[in-house]
Amino acid sequence: MKNKSQKKQKIIVSKFGVANWLTVLRMLLMIPFIVFLSTSFGLILNGVQLSYKTNKGIVLSILYWINVAIFIIAMITDFLDGFYARKTKTVSSFGKIFDPIADKVATTLMLLFLATYNFVYIPIAILFIIRDIIVDGTRVYAIKKNIEVSANWFGKIKTILVSLALVVISIGVPFISDKSDYKYILFYFNIPLIIGLLLAWISGIIYIIKYTKGINKELLQSYTKNDSNATNKNNQDQNNNNNKSNQDSSPSPNC
């Protein structure tokens, strides 16, 4: 018990520090990412060919590689802000809410981007998005209610696995697209994402169960408090009525 309390005492609550600025940077990086993603998608819809095959594989447009570079930089900032927060033992309300949101936005956009080029299976991207909407919505509500749930290992492993898988797919798949067994190789490239998806849903279910327990506990405490206040008020009103009736029934003094 002493060790736990000592660890908690060492954690410093920071208003807005370096880790938060790295989170902001990661979110800002998604602005040009979205621009290039939208541009690529629009060009593809209009029949513009953004890639062509050669003997060495598929050659992609500069838009593709710019977004890959942006995503890699975003993942580096994610590592750095986590490293800095752990090293300095600092936490902040901003980081609790926006750090996971920034991570989800980056990975979701990269999934959609790679799905646009058919490097990632679309159902995988959709299932990731559905999971994140459910979990993050629950998390934001729980944080507003001051309900904290620590990250589980499934979620941590998933984050690392998915980030690395997206980088490997984005860099590696273009160079094997000319192979005769491309579809099979592409499946092998997507296996880490599939595993990450399973881990994501497992961690998501664990999160939701813990958040639900915390929310139910908070609601029960609130109900108990309100019920106790109502009982005290009723008792007070009853005492006041009794005192008033006693005063009315007491004989008046003789003049």
From TrEMBL:
| Enzyme Commission number(s) | 2.7.8.5
**One annotated GO molecular function:** CDP-diacylglycerol-glycerol-3-phosphate 3-phosphatidyltransferase activity
Q: Where in the cell is it found?
A: Membrane
Per the record, its GO cellular-component terms are: membrane
Question: How does this chain sit within the bilayer?
Answer: Multi-pass membrane protein
**So what family is this one in?**
Belongs to the CDP-alcohol phosphatidyltransferase class-I family.
Would you indicate the residue range of the signal peptide?
Answer: none
The region called Disordered is annotated at 227-255
Task: List where the protein spans the membrane.
Answer: 24-45, 57-76, 109-130, 151-173, 185-209
PROSITE patterns attached to this UniProt entry: CDP_ALCOHOL_P_TRANSF
- Pfam families, alphabetized: CDP-OH_P_transf
* Superkingdom field: Bacteria
Q: Please note every region of biased composition (Low complexity).
A: 232-255
Keyword set for this entry? Lipid biosynthesis, Lipid metabolism, Membrane, Phospholipid biosynthesis, Phospholipid metabolism, Transferase, Transmembrane, Transmembrane helix
| InterPro entries with a match to the protein in the record | CDP-alcohol_PTase-I, CDP-OH_P_trans, CDP-OH_PTrfase_TM_dom, CDP_ALCOHOL_P_TRANSF_CS, Phosphatidylglycerol_P_synth
| Protein name as annotated | CDP-diacylglycerol--glycerol-3-phosphate 3-phosphatidyltransferase
Leading EC class: transferase
